[in-house]
Design goal:
11 helices, Rossmann fold, globular, about 40% helix, three-stranded parallel sheet, alpha/beta, six-stranded parallel sheet
């Protein structure tokens, strides 16, 4: 069996090209550009790469960029003060809370403090509700995570069949994190057909492998790099790898004096070839498109104040 390795480059590049063109047009027509603010904490090693990645990408697209990189020991009230200032800033149209947060901060309380109009990822409880209950029509933007999957599947000509079994495999700390649990369930409500079975599995469950073996579509969210074993997989399964793990740093080929990250998800690509029907890998898969859609939603937020 041939395994399709589905990268997000084509979709990402198309969206970023459209965003850059629209930002340039808005600058010429309106005399100003969308403003985006990033709030981040250097609490895990990967953030030293992830934070600059977002900032540099936003700058390259022509956005007005504000970066609030806060020490890991900041308390809730101090973070609230930063968010309140950004909420009140008319030049800021999007506020991005980069994950993860230090353990003393409650992510639901922090993201709830952000103005829902400026929370463009779809993580604010009001925006999550708009995704899960589309009939109330409160969603201002598509939630980035499921929208990225829909656009990648559309680009690849993949149609989700009927009566498939979806299994979401998550670490215990993700299932106990209220915000992540809400995000995953909201994303599932957007992409999983109504006639499909859905199972959320704790990675520490004694029956974890048996659940994986039933999956037609396996979504993996784990901090354990290359954790999934090929014998746990149903032949032809589609695997969606989501969480990025920094496994080591190596000298850059272009400049050996600089280190670059080696990133892996929960799935070893080579180990599932010939078993999986398709794989959205880490790096280079779904999450590259998520960032592009985040920027597209920022433009939508900016344009909403012009109308």
């Amino acid at each position: 069996m041939e395994t399709r390795i589905i990268k997000g480059d084509v979709v990402k590049d198309r969206i970023l090209h459209e965003v850059a063109a629209e930002v340039a047009m808005l600058k010429e027509r309106e005399g100003r550009v969308p403003g985006i603010a990033f709030i981040g904490f250097p609490c895990v090693p990967l953030t030293k790469y992830n934070i600059p990645l977002h900032i540099q990408a936003a700058q390259a697209l022509g956005f007005r960029v504000n970066a609030e990189i806060m020490p890991n020991d900041r308390g809730e009230q101090e973070v609230f003060e930063v968010i309140d200032r950004l909420n009140a800033d008319d030049d800021i149209n999007a506020i991005i809370l980069l994950q993860p947060l230090p353990p003393q901060l409650n992510p639901v309380r922090i993201v709830h403090r952000i103005d829902p109009v400026k929370e463009v990822e779809g993580f604010h409880p009001v925006n999550i509700m708009g995704t899960m209950v589309p009939d109330i029509r409160t969603a201002r933007y598509p939630m980035c995570l499921p929208e990225a999957l829909v656009e990648m599947f559309t680009e690849e000509g993949i149609t989700i069949g009927k009566d498939l079994e979806w299994v979401f495999l998550l670490d215990d700390e993700f299932l106990s994190n209220t915000l992540i649990k809400m995000i995953v369930r909201a994303a599932a409500s957007r992409v999983v057909p109504n006639d499909s079975a859905v199972t959320f599995v704790n990675r520490e469950s004694v029956n974890m492998a048996e659940h994986c073996k039933r999956a037609d579509i396996l979504v993996v969210v784990t901090k354990h790099p290359e954790y999934i074993q090929p014998e746990w997989l149903k032949p032809g399964v589609t695997i969606i790898d989501i969480y990025s793990n920094l496994v080591r740093e190596v000298p850059s080929k272009a400049d050996p004096s600089k280190l670059v990250p080696v990133i892996r998800g929960g799935v070893n690509v080579d180990s599932v070839k010939g078993i999986a029907g398709a794989l959205l890998p880490i790096p280079g898969g779904l999450m590259t498109v998520v960032m592009a859609i985040l920027f597209r939603n920022t433009v939508i937020s900016f344009k909403s104040i012009l109308s």
